[in-house]
Specification:
The chain has helices at 2-42, 45-53, 66-76, 88-101, 111-120, 127-143, 146-156, 166-174, 183-194. It is an all-alpha fold. Helix 1 crosses helix 6 and helix 3 (66-76) packs parallel to helix 9 (183-194). The longest helix is centred in the N-terminal third of the chain and has 41 residues, at 2-42.
């Protein structure tokens, strides 16, 4: 009898937890989806990509140091070439850490998600924005190849001191084209991506 009561209690507790998760999650997903629709209705993903590729300092992936590309993947999204827009392992780990911390302290975003955020959204850490960037990330993955996504990310990422994109950064910090930077310079720029407001090669 005690065993039956225990399992009834466990089932009831799990049911309550699931209901709470559902009640909390649904409005966030709805708001995030509305943010996504509003952003992409105003400027489609295809148009936003074309605009990005038309910028003055935009460079193709073949014109970027392979050391930099490899280090970016190793630092930002090791499963980049195997997932479909979201790194489930990193995202799950970030969610657990955020719950334990009681606030958003870790992103866990894939390179595609970071590209989506830089294309459309602010840097405010809101769950609704994370949902919106997920929808955009899935759209990007349908339109572009992995190499194109990596290329675009390198061309839109912020490297501090007003430098948006890898070419602006390498010219500013080293007076070199992206293809010509050393392994050490590449590592320094990848480190800058983590915290451009608190670290860059000039510090």
């Amino acid at each position: 009898m005690k065993t039956n009561r225990f399992w009834r209690f466990v089932r009831m507790t799990l049911a309550i937890v699931l209901v709470i998760i559902f009640v909390v999650t649904v409005p966030i997903v709805k708001t995030g989806y509305d943010m996504y629709k509003d952003a992409t209705t105003h400027t489609s993903v295809v148009d936003r990509i074309e605009r990005l590729k038309g910028e003055e300092n935009y460079v193709g992936i073949e014109a970027i140091s392979t050391d930099f590309l490899e280090q970016v993947i190793d630092s930002e999204d090791r499963r980049f070439y195997s997932h479909s827009g979201i790194n489930l392992i990193s995202t799950s780990r970030a969610m657990i850490n955020n719950v334990m911390a009681g606030s958003t302290v870790e992103g866990g975003s894939s390179i595609t998600q970071q590209l989506a955020k830089n294309m459309y959204f602010s840097f405010e850490k809101r769950y609704e924005r994370k949902v919106a960037e997920l929808f955009v990330a899935f759209d990007i993955e349908k339109i572009a190849t992995k190499d194109e996504i990596l290329e675009m990310y390198c061309n839109i990422a912020y490297f501090g001191e007003g430098c948006y994109g890898i070419r602006a950064a390498t010219l500013h910090y080293y007076d070199l084209e992206p293809i010509d930077i050393s392994t050490e310079q590449a590592a320094s720029l990848v480190k800058t991506l983590k915290s451009p407001n608190f670290y860059n090669p000039n510090m």
